[in-house]
Amino acid sequence: MKINAFGFGRDVGFSLALLVAALICLSGCADMAGTAQSSLPAPLTQQQIAQILASPDRSAADRTNDLRRKPDQMLAFIAVRPGMIALDLSAAGGYTTELLARAVGPAGRAYGQSPPPRAPDAPARPPVAPEGASTPGAPVAAPPAVRMTSAQALAQRAKNPAAANIVPVVRNFEDPVPPELAAGGFDLVTLMFNYHDLGHLGIDRTRMNKAVFAALKHGGMYVIADHSGRPGTGITESGTLHRIEEAFLRQEVEAAGFKLADQGNFMRNPSDPRDKNTPEPPQPKDEFVLKFVKP
User: What is the mean pLDDT of each run of 10 residues along the chain (295 residues)?
Assistant: First the structure.
């Protein structure tokens, strides 16, 4: 066996070269997967999140919504980082959009998407505020005195200097991303408690999820929370019980190329029979939170 300049036999040297090449490849793949996060600061700490939620300029309605929505655990689960470019789909009254705007800070932006006004004969869209269905036994924010469109509500929130980085976006769900950001412009996309509504609204969810996939950077996150439906019901009870089967939603999102990264159980209620819109006896709805990543 011949000995090369490095003191290895030819076969050993060849194997070593293959190993080095493989390590380089793995390193490159890891870098690609972390592209969305690599240049950003560390995720917010629990203390930083608590400071955001305690901000005295937050509205009374949002503070009431906090009791049900558990934003401290949600922001920690998402692992929001300052400087992120985020998109909140179906922003409604902007509760989540404003939280994201505060969390990403002045170096980031929080786009809040809402669909154009519907035609008179189109199915009713989700209410502007509050987002999602209320939970029995929990206080519910009073509706605004004058009903605003989602874009108007977001523009109103953006008048607050702490949320001046909110950008209202009025676009169809199937094409929800501003063209200039449609190819890898976002670090994070959220869809809070309204994915199920896309069923009875007749939205092409395949197109929407593919658009979200294209809009995220490699390593970018797509976080979806919704009201849990019973196994086998899919999205068939979206317009009646306002629920969706978790496995069904996951299958649709993964079909667009996403990989499930984590599951949040902090809004779970295994005692919910999931056979009514408002559980009986009165109790919180069983709700799931899924974090997907773009490889």
Answer: 46 43 43 62 97 98 97 98 98 98 98 86 52 46 66 97 98 97 98 97 97 98 98 97 98 98 98 96 97 98
Q: How many CA atoms lie within 13 A of 58 on its CB side?
A: 20
Q: How many CA atoms lie within 13 A of 108 on its CB side?
A: 29
Smallest CA-to-CA distance from 242 within 285, 191, 292 is with: 285
**Assigned token pair, 198:** 């896309």
Q: CA-CA distance, 194 to 133, in Å (whole number)?
A: 9
State phi, psi for 263 to the nearest 5 degrees: -130, 135
Per-residue pLDDT, 21: 44
Give the predicted TM-score (pTM) of the model: 0.82
C-alpha distances (whole Å) from 232 to each of 48, 103, 247 are 41, 37, 9
Give the integer Cα–Cα distance in Å for 76 and 289: 12
Q: What is the dihedral of CA 290, 291, 292, 293, to 10 degrees?
A: -170
> Which residues contact residue 233 at a Cβ distance below 8 angstroms, ignoring those fewer than 6 apart?
243, 244, 245, 248
Specify the DSSP element, H or E, that contains 186.
strand 186-192
Q: What percent of the chain lies above the pLDDT cut of 70?
A: 78
Two tokens, residue 48: 């930083």
With H, G, I as helix, E, B as strand and everything else as coil, classify residue 135. Answer: coil
